From TrEMBL:
TM segment ranges: none
Domain Hydrophobic seed protein stretches: 34-114
Origin: domain of life: Eukaryota
The keyword Cell inner membrane belongs to this UniProt entry's keyword annotation: no
Pfam families linked to this entry: Hydrophob_seed
Record keywords, A-Z: Signal
InterPro entries membership: Bifun_inhib/LTP/seed_sf, Hydrophob_seed_dom, Plant_LTP/defense-related
Protein name: Hydrophobic seed protein domain-containing protein
Signal peptide: 1-24
Organism: Brassica cretica
Length: 114
């Protein structure tokens, strides 16, 4: 009887250890989100839609949007603004690199605005 209790205790201990390891795994990396408010993003969208037909990109509102942000977060903010603008609907291509480049920020390698 004592060996049966030891076997059960050993079995339960091993199960607790293995279940503890499986539950203790860290979650995967989270995608960055834009910490700016919707009104700030809308100001950038308004600026993007007002440059139709102009060769110069006066994107000061978008530069204020990404000021002080990490390049990956700044890319997400500008990507959101580009998705909200009517430029996407009209088929006018203003690339993420153009907008970030005019603000002095380089997009992260391999970033795709999807």
């Amino acid at each position: 009887m004592a060996s049966k209790n030891i076997t059960i205790a050993l079995f339960l201990t091993i199960n607790l250890v293995f279940f503890g390891f499986t539950m203790a795994q860290a979650p995967g990396p989270q995608a960055p989100i834009c910490p700016r408010s919707s009104t700030q993003v809308q100001a950038c969208v308004n600026r993007l839609t007002s440059i139709v037909g102009l060769n110069v990109l006066p994107l000061t509102q978008c530069c204020f949007l990404v000021a002080g942000l990490a390049p990956s977060v700044a890319s997400v903010c500008i990507c959101n603004a580009l998705k909200l603008s009517v430029l996407d609907i009209l088929g006018i291509t203003v690339t993420l690199g153009q907008v970030l480049g005019s603000c002095g920020v380089s997009p992260p390698a391999g970033f795709i605005c999807a």
